[in-house]
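Notes on consecutive records. When two proteins share a document, each keeps its own sequence and its own token line. Never mix them. Below: protein one.
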Amino acid sequence: MSFNGSHTIYNLGNQYLDLVLTTEGIKTDNRPMNQNKLVVHKGFNNKLSFFVRNRDRALQNISTKTLYATVVNPSTKRRVMLKPLTLVNSGTTGEASLELVPSDLTDLAPGLYQIAISETSDSGATEYPLYANQNDRIITDLEVKSNLEYEPIPTQQKTTFTQTANTDSGDAANTFVSSAMYGNQDNLTTGNHTIAMYLTGFSGNIHVQGSALETTPSSDTDWYDINVQGDVGDPAIPYTTFTGIDPFNFTVNTNWVRLKYYPTAGTVDKVQLRN
């Protein structure tokens, strides 16, 4: 049985407010074309645009102004963000934008906030509010949503390693492996990984390995070497009596990651993986 569905989506552009320049200062037009609430989404880049106009709705030159956005938590009355706006076309068109990257919203819980815009022409020595309507209200409602907010999976850690080859049994080298850790199964677009090895007096070679199997690998032949030092050269990471933490950043699309090492002295105490 199959099900086919369709859903129409719309590109509505960036949200905006019209600001009115009067002899008393800059106010925000409170006519119906202004939105009652601005909305931003966690996990995305967001852009809010503001237009400064006079009472005749003519765009004003704000090239000598610096505009700031202040976001306030209405429950605690505390400021949670202060960020300058960016003038568009050097401000000659009366437009300024508030550009928010995902990290700007990381610490903001979803919900309703209040945003106020202020302007200064002397690097903040004097600062004046811009009015959100012509009834002297300087606050506009801002809603933070988390419809598609995402978080990386927790850091994975292994402190126990299994010996798979032993020189005392006639093998060519002592070999140890960690159990399988999750690769970028939920992060297919970037494949970014950070791995850190905690070593004490370690000498020998370490390999970071991956596997593309859907299920947990069960055989040594299911794994391939990942060159975390770059795309050329030997994937083995050599050490001579190293003590400390050695981290590597690498990019690979793989379902599983493990550590495999060949010690001649010292120990691998643990390995941590973040992706």
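Protein two starts on the next line and is unrelated to protein one.
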Amino acid sequence: MIRTHARRLTTVSLVCGLLLSAIAADSEPVAVRFAEGLVHGFLKLSTTDGTPLADGDLLQTAQGNRVTSRLIFRFKDKSTHAETSVYTQQGQFRLVSYHLSQQGPSFPRTLDMTIDQAGLATVKYTDDHGQQKTESEHLKVPAADLSNGMMLTLLKNVRAGAIPAELSLVVATPKPRVVKLKLSSAGDETFSTGGMRRKATHYVVKVDIGGLAGLVAPVVGKQPADSHVWILAGDVPAFVKSEQLFYMGAPLWRVELVSPVWPHPQPAQ
């Protein structure tokens, strides 16, 4: 029973919502230092050795203090991963609603998870026999402590030397539950854009399942692998890349920004 429960733990995206996260009850919420606005980012998803998997878009709009962020990956095998987060950014980040959808052969099961403003989390999924199932749970955490789909936003607003000890994440097991995320910094790493050298802070995110399942998971080899996020350091922080799990048992997948590629002009006749 415990082995089955640990095997089914689905780690929802940290970038994206990647996949993803919330401030723990005993930690101070991340203060809003940089207000989010209009964004359309072009992304690629690949294995850590560079094999392409999917093309993606990050679409974000803001009306007053209310932000809507959509992350969509379209896989070469027609699978899709889509996240929509709605949150407010007044003093601190506060989740209003969240929706995650995964379907297609790149994922072990079709999954649809929602979190509404009242704290009701609902997971619709297909079980091992292909049957449609639904699990719901009222989350006993304040809205200010939930921020699924906001990991990148949170890390851009973290002050140097003041990393939150814990974040939280709502995951599907398939029943929705809250797990803790342990954050640490692996220091700054150098990368380049063109001929310019820059520095990014490397964050390491470890999933703490908690409870009896958490004690057993490392023993049976089901402890989720650590995820990694790189944020450009400086006065204007920005996402650089991440390596994260999109579901339990998957290898780490890499998310990076890409630039448009134009067709070569035809020579004049």
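For the record: The longest strand covers residues 176-193.
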